[in-house]
Design a protein that fits this description.
The chain is α+β, with helices and mostly antiparallel strands. It has 17 helices and eight strands.
């Protein structure tokens, strides 16, 4: 036990989080910005002032403990585990505690009530994500939904604490998908305002600025930024995004009405008012409150390990030489598939440097490295067809699910595993269904692949993953690389077939060895997760490097993989 907050002094990530116990056994969170994080002192002080505003009414927010500007550290206190960890915690036969629709409704209502409380206080959070939503258990080992708290307010604002710098957020990052269109526009306008002020008109992001313009970021204050004019709608949009991703996976519906109403309500959370969206947070809460839920609560005997939380904030890459910046491209529907992959316990204690801001009353810490989106290795499917543009998101995509409509039954296991992607659709995409079926039945592997895709997406036929797998398999047996990649994805995620990582590896490898980028990407993820093969980061890097030659998602993931390897390992792989 120590009387200091133990801080990971290795500045490998822009943001690092550490959970530890104080001497009074209270659970505390240490947020540290790297030494080269732009305007770190400004952002930490801004967040500290926001947290101090909750002292009179601490509901739904972590309790502010202190800030140390010598070490770029902010300490807060909140008991529980992040939602990302709960989603990676099986409960009996359930893949996570919210697989039952009743528990998902409880979770949604808890988050909405927290948001309504913040809104009534005049605060817009601006960065609601699963990694910063914390829930604890009660004495019956059930999730206490009333305990929900937020542990990060880095980009929050209200009328007293306005933001005076453009948000340090990369809109091109796949992890920025949860940001509402109005917020994305405001961030871009604010960067344009900043660029004009520093003499570089026409630029609209951190990446476009010269080094001279970047160096001025710490000293320039802009009181009238567009970000300050946004309201609760951007937070409701973000919640809608994340609950939509959860709902895209297996849900056990308590009532038939849940299967129809719940997806529709979540979809409505992301709609503007003029397009049928909610007119107020109270109206949204009431809409969910009328849903009948099962009174029985889950008993969770094994709580998650809070030792691998990765922040999902889409922070720009501070050192482009360490990786490639994601490219902004068209996006498709996304799934949120939580996984425990990459959540390796790191209990190595590090001696905190001395300084005037030393914080007392701190205990043993678990190092929690923050990496943009790196904690979520989940299934990703990319079906590019004339009416569905290819996506480059690092989070999973399922174009067959239109605004949650694809989340149909509890017998389809859309479970959270490595972010698999599915490849470009074939040239047969433009054929009429009758012609396509005729060609497929005649043995054409491209037609078989495309017909499988039609069944997967429910285009012109009733969606049927079992039929999709059958057609993919016929094409894969003819050594069709695209079909092999699709079939590997289906085995990887348990769609239409029993989940089998060994088969996922086999078909992904067959596809990858023919140069298919999707097969290469998915094979890399299987190596990275140790699913169906021995865990091998070097082999994961080799295949991801090949995939990166033709896929933007792979380029973004490659940058993360590079940071997992030592210079010696990278040199050896690059030579091979």
């Amino acid at each position: 036990m120590t009387d200091e907050a133990e801080v990971n002094t290795h500045p490998e990530r822009p943001i690092q989080l550490e959970k530890f116990l104080s001497q009074r056994a209270t659970e505390r969170w240490c947020k540290r910005l790297s030494a080269d994080y732009p305007a770190a002192e400004y952002w930490l002080c801004h967040e500290a002032r926001i947290l101090q505003g909750f002292q009179r009414d601490p509901r739904y927010a972590a309790r502010f403990i202190g800030v140390d500007l010598d070490r770029n550290v902010l300490i807060s206190e909140a008991a529980g585990h992040p939602l990302t960890h709960w989603l990676a915690t099986p409960v009996g036969q359930l893949e996570h505690p919210f697989q039952r629709s009743s528990d998902l409704v409880r979770l949604i209502l808890a988050a909405l009530r927290a948001l309504a409380h913040l809104s009534r206080a005049g605060l817009v959070h601006g960065g609601l994500r699963p990694d910063l939503i914390v829930l604890r258990q009660n004495d019956k080992y059930q999730i206490d939904f009333d305990s929900l708290a937020l542990i990060d307010f880095g980009v929050a604002r209200n009328s007293q604490q306005r933001i005076e710098k453009p948000l340090f957020i990369d809109l091109a990052s796949p992890d920025a998908a949860y940001l509402a269109p109005s917020m994305r526009e405001a961030i871009q306008r604010d960067w344009q305002t900043y660029a004009k002020l520093v003499g570089e008109s026409g630029k609209s992001s951190w990446y476009e600025l010269s080094e001279t313009a970047r160096q001025q970021y710490g000293s320039v204050l802009l009181p009238d930024l567009a970000i300050n004019n946004l309201d609760w709608r951007v937070d409701l949009y973000a919640l809608g995004h994340w609950f939509k991703q959860i709902s895209l996976h297996r849900i056990d519906y308590f009532k038939d009405a849940h299967q129809e109403i719940l997806p529709a309500l979540v979809k409505k959370m992301q709609k503007p008012v003029l397009q049928g969206g909610f007119t107020s947070l109270d109206a949204c809460i009431k809409a969910f409150e009328v849903l009948e839920v099962d009174d029985r609560l889950l008993t969770i005997t094994e709580a998650p390990q809070t030792s691998g939380v990765f922040t999902m904030q889409p922070t720009p890459v501070l050192h482009p030489t360490l990786g490639l910046r994601p490219t902004a491209t068209a996006r498709g529907e996304e799934e949120f598939a939580p996984s425990s992959l990459g959540m390796t316990r790191r209990e190595a204690k590090q001696e905190a440097p001395s300084g005037r801001g030393r914080l007392l009353g701190m205990g043993i810490g678990l190092i929690v490295v923050a990496a943009v989106g790196a904690a979520l290795l989940s299934s990703k499917e990319q079906h590019a067809s004339p009416d569905q543009p290819a996506s480059t998101a690092a989070l999973p995509i399922d174009p067959t699910s239109t605004a949650l409509a694809g989340s149909t039954a509890s017998n389809e296991q859309n479970s959270g595993e490595p972010p698999a992607i599915a490849p470009e659709s074939s040239a047969m995409a433009g054929l009429q269904l009758a012609d396509l079926r005729k060609a497929a039945e005649g043995g054409d592997p491209a037609a078989q692949t495309q017909l499988g895709l039609r069944y997967r997406k429910g285009q012109g036929v009733t969606a049927d993953n079992v039929q999709a797998v059958a057609w993919y398999r016929q094409a894969a047996e003819q050594n069709h690389a695209e079909a092999q990649a699709y079939l590997g994805f289906m085995y990887m995620t348990g769609r239409g077939v029993k989940k089998d990582f060994a088969e996922a590896v086999r078909y992904s490898r067959l596809s990858a060895e023919q140069g298919n980028g999707t097969g290469q990407y998915n094979l890399a993820l299987l190596y990275l997760a140790g699913r169906g093969v021995a865990l091998d980061k070097l082999e994961a890097y080799r295949w991801m490097k090949k995939a990166a030659e033709q896929d933007n998602s792979a380029r973004a993931r490659l940058a993360e993989l590079r940071q997992m390897l030592s210079p010696t390992q990278l040199a050896a792989v690059d030579k091979s």
